[in-house]
Amino acid sequence: MHWNIEQILWALVLAGHLLLLIVLLARDRMSRFPWFSAAIALSTVHLIADHLLHGKLTNLAFYWQSDVLIVLETIAGLMVLVEVTRRIFASGKAGLCLNAKGWLGWSLVTAGLAIAAVWAWDPFHTWTNLHSDPKELPLLIVALSAVNGQLFLAVLTIEVGLLVQIFGKRFGSGFRSHAQQIMLGLSTYALGFMAVQISTDAIKRTVRLTSREQYLHIVKIFTNLDYARFALWFLVLVWWMVWLWREEPGFRLTTDEAPVEVEPALLEADLPAEIREDVREGDPEFRD
Question: Domain-by-domain residue ranges, the chain?
Answer without folding.
Answer: 5-251, 260-288
